[in-house]
């Protein structure tokens, strides 16, 4: 990976804590978490790196003590901006009954057991019966199934949130159907070739899930791993699985930041990605000299991770993808005459200091937001490890932003 000599990197993070899905998505008992956090620590130890936590860019922070900075303000004070804000939503099925009690988004459930403040109050009800349905057969579905079926005493030793241990220990769920619309050649699991059509109650006056109905599907080409699912012969009877709890686990979804449209930053809604050249350079359609439409580079804007290529890939592939974008940025930086934000690359714009002044975010500033720096995160980290030590775990996460900020002081 090439380097931009003496470049300063300011990283803005909406939460007071770093690591994104590595902290709030990856299952608590997976070893990747540790390796990834160690790599992050190494990068953060550079004197040219600044962590700016508890500050949301372009979207309102979801708690009163969080700072919000307009994207336009960021664009004024840097030569280059890289978007890697992941995928904060998930895909929906759009079928009847999706809002019944007992039907959950796997994304929210995963955030809940991993202590994400936004979903700390999810309180999934796992006491209504023994049957659970998970729709989708991706790795997230498998993580959810494992959490539902794992011995709670094994989970207790991981950094899973304490509220999740309490709920899972009272769970009545004994049987989990992981349902896919394609067959064993395209993935693997137990309930194949079924596509959900409705979530059902026992009676019209009930609002709680009782069963899930599926139609049968057939494959466009049975032995092709890329085959897609087609509706089967309509005379085939539907399949109904008893289910008192269901999880929709059909993939995450990125959204554009609200200022993208007014600032002319292109977002491909269909694929849920920032339009880019594949190496992370943000690009938009423009009319060429011959009047034909072609892709034009958006000076100084880059993207990486799930918001660059869609919500797929593991930590290793996401890191590779980040390196590729960094390489493209370094290549542009080294090329004389390439236009960046605010002119050619100079590296001497105001950066965080200017953004802070412009938005009243200095210590005691008018908006009083509590910006968390790397030392602040270290204090939260230390306090979480100490809480964990007392209950025999590596870490007991704070699940409320206010509690994290109380530690920072
Ligand atoms: C449930 C689940 C389990 C997984 N388990 C594994 C595993 O075991 N092993 C593995 O290798 N991979 C795993 N993955 C994949 C891995 O987590 C992803 O590949 C990787 O985290 C994607 O990185 P990202 O940077 O694109 O997004 P994220 O990790 O989501 O990071 C995005 C960051 O941007 C921040 N952000 C969002 N909006 C704003 C804003 N407006 N302003 C400021 N900050 C913002 C978020 O708070 C977050 O910190 C898992 C994924 C999921 C969903
Ligand atoms: N341990 C790990 O390494 C780990 C853990 C968790 C996540 N991850 C990674 O994170 C990424 C995201 O995982 P994910 O599980 O959210 O997504 P995913 O891998 O894309 O899986 C989504 C699943 O939902 C199904 N689906 C989509 N739309 C559907 C619909 N309308 N009706 C029925 N089923 C539908 C898909 O079926 P089709 O195939 O038929 O479209 C697929 O089975 C993946 O790359 C994954 O590998 C890794």
From TrEMBL:
Lineage: superkingdom: Eukaryota
Sorted UniProt keywords: FAD, Flavoprotein, NADP, Oxidoreductase
Keyword Transmembrane helix assigned: no
SUPFAM superfamilies the record matches: Nucleotide-binding domain (SSF51971)
Reaction(s) catalysed by this chain's protein: 2 reduced [adrenodoxin] + NADP(+) + H(+) = 2 oxidized [adrenodoxin] + NADPH
Cofactor(s), names only, from the UniProt record: FAD
InterPro entries: FAD/NAD-bd_sf, Ferredox_Rdtase, Ferredox_Rdtase_adrenod
Binding site for NADP(+): 137-140, 181-182, 313
EC code(s) of this entry: 1.18.1.6
Binding site for FAD: 13, 21, 57, 306, 313-315
A GO term, aspect molecular function: oxidoreductase activity
Similarity-based family: Belongs to the ferredoxin--NADP reductase type 1 family.
The protein's name: adrenodoxin-NADP(+) reductase
Protein's organism: Staphylotrichum longicolle
């Amino acid at each position: 990976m090439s380097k931009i000599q003496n470049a300063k990197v300011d990283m803005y993070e909406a939460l007071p804590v770093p690591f994104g899905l590595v902290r709030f998505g990856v299952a608590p008992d997976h070893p990747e978490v540790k390796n990834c956090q160690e790599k992050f620590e190494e990068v953060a130890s550079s004197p040219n790196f600044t962590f700016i936590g508890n500050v949301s860019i372009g979207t309102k922070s979801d708690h009163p003590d969080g700072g919000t900075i307009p994207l336009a303000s960021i664009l004024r004070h840097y030569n280059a901006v890289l978007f890697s804000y992941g995928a904060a939503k998930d895909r929906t099925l759009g079928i009847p009954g999706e809002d019944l009690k007992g039907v959950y988004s796997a994304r929210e459930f995963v955030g809940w057991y991993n202590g994400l403040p936004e979903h700390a109050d999810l309180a999934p009800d796992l006491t209504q019966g023994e049957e659970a349905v998970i729709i989708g057969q991706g790795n997230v579905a498998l993580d959810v199934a494992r959490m539902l079926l794992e011995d709670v005493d094994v989970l207790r030793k991981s950094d899973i949130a304490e509220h999740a241990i309490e709920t899972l220990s009272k769970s009545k769920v004994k049987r989990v159907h992981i349902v896919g619309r394609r067959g064993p050649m395209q993935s693997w699991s137990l309930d194949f070739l079924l596509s959900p059509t409705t979530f059902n109650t026992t009676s019209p006056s009930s609002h709680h899930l009782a069963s899930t109905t599926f139609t049968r599907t057939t494959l466009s080409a049975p032995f092709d791993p890329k085959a897609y699912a087609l509706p089967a012969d309509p005379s085939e009877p539907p399949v109904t699985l008893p289910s008192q709890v269901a999880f929709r686990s059909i993939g995450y979804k990125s959204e554009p930041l609200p200022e993208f449209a007014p600032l002319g930053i292109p977002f491909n809604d269909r694929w849920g990605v920032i339009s880019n050249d594949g190496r992370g350079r943000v690009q938009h359609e423009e009319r060429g000299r011959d009047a034909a439409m072609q892709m034009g580079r958006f000076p100084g804007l880059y993207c990486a991770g799930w918001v660059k290529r869609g919500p797929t890939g593991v930590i290793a592939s996401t890191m590779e993808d980040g390196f590729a974008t960094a390489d493209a940025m370094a290549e542009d930086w080294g090329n004389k005459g390439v236009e960046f934000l605010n002119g050619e690359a100079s590296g001497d714009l105001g950066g965080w200091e200017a953004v802070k002044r412009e938005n009243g975010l200095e210590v005691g500033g008018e908006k009083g937001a509590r910006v968390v720096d790397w030392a602040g995160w270290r204090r939260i980290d230390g306090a979480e490890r100490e809480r964990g030590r007392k209950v025999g775990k590596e870490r007991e996460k704070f699940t409320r932003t206010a509690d994290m900020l109380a530690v920072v002081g």
